[in-house]
Specification:
Elements: H1 2-21, E1 27-37, E2 42-47, E3 64-67, E4 84-88, E5 93-98, E6 103-108, E7 110-115, E8 132-134, E9 140-145, E10 150-155, E11 173-180, E12 183-189
Antiparallel strand pairs: 1-2, 1-11, 2-3, 4-5, 5-6, 7-10, 8-9, 9-10, 11-12
Length: 199
């Protein structure tokens, strides 16, 4: 499955790399969206320093802010923002972007249920909106990672349950072509394309 997804990723990246390579002084950036101001057309990303669709590494600080292209034809689907950067199912930890400190926050959790190899077409996730947060008796958060194919229900500290739902949601993965810092000339929403589904 991972090999198939990797080849799909190459189908997207190789033509873009060839295209971008032909433009003088152009650069490409890629990362996960943690904030989006639709009115100002500003997108804030945490850069994937590896640009690896299988094992991304969202560790670059400070966050990078880009304006969307002036030409609507160069803009893909508008991005959805989220604060979850990593679901570490092995070490029972979620890495979030904290807008207040402009830094990362690592939240330890207690696993309640973890189901591996759950495809997006699985009845347990298809048509459902995640995260699913139970702030009542259970006090749980259920997360589905499309990229990892993990459906996991966790318990976190009481102080985290009051945070907005978007805290536990992964923002879209986007790729930006630019010449001038902070001003995108082409904007591609990788998550919302058929060839790349990774959250």
């Amino acid at each position: 499955m991972l090999k198939k997804r990797y080849w799909k990723f190459l189908l997207v990246t190789l033509p873009l790399a060839a295209l971008f390579g032909c433009v003088e002084d152009g650069k490409v950036d890629q990362g996960r969206v943690v904030a989006f101001d639709a009115q100002k057309r500003l997108v804030t990303i945490i850069r994937d320093v590896k640009m690896d669709p299988i094992n991304p590494q969202y560790t670059h600080l400070p966050p990078l802010v880009y304006t969307l292209p002036e030409d609507p034809a160069e803009t893909g689907p508008l991005p959805r923002a989220g604060r979850r950067l990593k679901l570490d199912a092995d070490n029972n930890q979620i890495v979030l972007f904290d807008a207040a400190t402009q830094n990362f926050k690592r939240v330890d959790f207690t696993p309640v249920e973890k189901i591996m190899n759950v495809s997006p077409d699985d009845a347990r996730v298809k048509g459902k909106k995640f995260p699913i947060i139970d702030r009542g008796n259970k006090k749980t958060i259920t997360i589905y990672s499309t990229r990892q194919r993990i459906l996991e229900t966790v318990q976190v500290g009481e102080e985290y349950l009051g945070l907005p739902d978007s805290t536990w949601e992964a923002g879209d993965e986007v790729r930006i072509y630019y010449k001038q810092e902070g001003k995108s000339l082409r904007f591609m929403n990788l998550t919302q394309t058929d060839l790349f589904k990774g959250k």
